Amino acid sequence: MKSIKFTLAASGSAALLLLAGCSSTGGGSTADGEFAPNGDVRMVVPFSAGGGSDTSGRAIAAGLEADTGVNISVENREGGSGAVGYSYFLSQEGKDNYLLAAETAMLALPLTQDVQFSYESFTPIMKLGDDYTLMVVGADSKYETCDEVVADAADNRVVAAVSGATSLDEIVFTLVETDQDVEFDRVPFESGSEVLAALLGGQVDVASLNPSEVLGQLESGDLKALCAFADERYEFEALADIPTAIEQGIDVSFAQFRGFIAPGGISDEAKEYWIAAGEAFAETDAYTTYIDDNLLQPNAVYGDDFVEYLAGNTADLEKVFAE
């Protein structure tokens, strides 16, 4: 299989509802009759604390809270490579005061495991941006480039850490295996933070991690990046010197989306409220800071446009897992 590349044009749209005057209670409406969440809001993160999904969930919760005045708490429900959290969220059908920090696992899990949900079970609200990965190794690793890793994997055992069977890093390693006709020996972990700890501890040879998860270790010299699984090199100064995998003859580029969803079965008013909140968040310094700090591409889409993206992304992933 050749590379699967996801490039979306940013979709700018006007806020659909005024958020002024919304409160954290009100039985579904404010005093003047406009919609408001029924009580305090819970942001579910389907992975453990410390990883990219947790960072995303907390940033979204803080941004929405600041814009709406609604109290939003974060709850980690990890397990099953995200299946536990998404299954729990499925049980919140119709509740307008629940949100979930979503990513590619929402699409990959139904394609690879016996779960009772798909993205169509929920109400997609906003995709904040796209998150590519780097292949990283320990500072004392013998590898200097990704093609060296691939060449070694053709003849020897190369141990790769992955954060679950449907994670972004699992998908990336599968794409590399398909493109280069090699095989990695995988060791699964529950989160990116656990993968990072294993790599730093010398328990594995290589890992594919988001830049935000390893920037500190790259800057300190504890880890080194061999390539980026992106279409082009990063423009961020700290990553600009990292070549792409494509430059090294590995035709793989893949981005994980970061966004948030609401439960299925909520009212149209609730859906439009959260879309408007997301659009307002995208105009704030907090959104820009999150995108910059986590080295994302700010390709924001909302509502039906987000649904269209998810449908296309699912079709591409079906090709990956069919290999």
What does this entry look like structurally?
The chain has a six-stranded mixed β-sheet with strand order 2-1-3-10-4-11, with helices on both faces. It has two domains: 41-131 and 256-322, 3-Layer(aba) Sandwich (D-Maltodextrin-Binding Protein, domain 2); 134-248, D-Maltodextrin-Binding Protein, domain 2. Helices cover 36% and strands 18% of the residues. It is α/β, with parallel strands linked by helices. The protein has ten helices and eleven strands.
Features:
323 residues, disordered N terminus, alpha/beta, 2 domains, five-stranded mixed beta sheet, D-Maltodextrin-Binding Protein, domain 2, six-stranded mixed beta sheet
Under CATH at level 1, the class of the largest domain stands as Alpha Beta
CATH topology of the largest domain, which one?
D-Maltodextrin-Binding Protein, domain 2
Secondary-structure element sequence?
EHEHEHEEHEHEHEHEEHHEH
Q: What class, by secondary structure content?
A: alpha/beta
* Share in β-strands: 15-25%
How many separate helices?
10
Describe the biggest sheet? 6 strands, mixed
General form: globular
- What is the CATH homology-level superfamily of the largest domain? Bordetella uptake gene, domain 1
- Taking the alpha carbons of the first and last residues, their distance comes to 8 Å
Strand order of the largest sheet: 2-1-3-10-4-11
CATH A-level architecture of the largest domain? 3-Layer(aba) Sandwich
Q: How large is the radius of gyration?
A: 20 Å
- The low-confidence parts are 1-27
Helix content: 25-40%
Number of strands: 11
Domain module tally: 2
The average pLDDT value, as a whole number, equals 88
